Amino acid sequence: MSAALGALVYFSSASENTARFVARCRLEERGVDVFRIPLRPSDPPLSVREPFVLMVPTYGGGDIRKAVPMQVKRFLNDPDNRRWIRGVIASGNTNFGEAYCAAGDVIAAKCQVPYLFRFELMGTPEDEATVRDQLPRFLAGLADPTTHGAPGTPGTPTT
Hints:
By secondary structure, the chain is of the alpha/beta class. The chain has one domain (6-142): Rossmann fold (3-Layer(aba) Sandwich), CATH 3.40.50.360. It is 30% helix and 19% strand. It has five helices and five strands. Helix 4 links the parallel strand 4 (85-92) and strand 5. Helix 1 packs across helix 5.
């Protein structure tokens, strides 16, 4: 594990909206590692071995069954990645109605982790400040042995 507090793992489509949001948060300056889930299946898979929060855009145009991008599903289907997830942040479009940020709902439920934050589309400066300030605090709390920071607790798949 690195000397960082933990990590933010994110997925961004070719539009780069999520990538730009993450860059504006400047999380590395706050001691948070940042990793991107590859866009193309031909790219080498991402392997994360430290506690992380997942940031994901919502897909599906309002269809909750299609809310989680395939690349994110592939990443989380690796048990060695999934065991380290500690929370989720999602972006979405309020035009999706009840499916707004549904990827976060789906992942939080399936991985049994807290849904920490949601924001619309590219986020606002206030959204960036919230993530920049609160994510390092959340990750720092995972180092406390009385919290759920031990590998294999939240994020462990249920059968």
